[in-house]
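G., the chain you wanted modeled:
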Amino acid sequence: EDNVKYIPALYVCNKVDTTGLSTFRRLGKSKNYVLISCNRNWNMDGVREAIYQALTPIRVYTKRPQSPPDLTQPVILCKGRHNVADLCRSIHSSLADPRRFYYANVWGTSVRFRPQRVGLTHQLHDEDVVQIMVRKDVQAE
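Predicted structure as tokens:
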């Protein structure tokens, strides 16, 4: 059983306008099911909302030293992946190496002071600004 991995899923059932009422009611009560009809344009907003709720994305902005943050292109982190290490890995895998990572400065709602120096395990919030500092004496692998 150690080799089994359960992943979350969202089931989108199309053509519900052609099914019977009993099937419609049974699927409608099920968890993680979204019922739609593309032909009749039923519940298309419900699909968007269900996807957004399943992913729970947050936007994190990056900042280079001595320059303002780039608020035009956020890094999107999804459910369960909201810490500085995940941000580093999404930019480049070598940034999350503890031998290379020095610290990060964070501005936003996840910190008490602005900026605040944090480590790899710090949990980020939506719209935080992060400046990653690396050791210069350690080369990327």
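The mean pLDDT is 90.

Shout if anything looks off.
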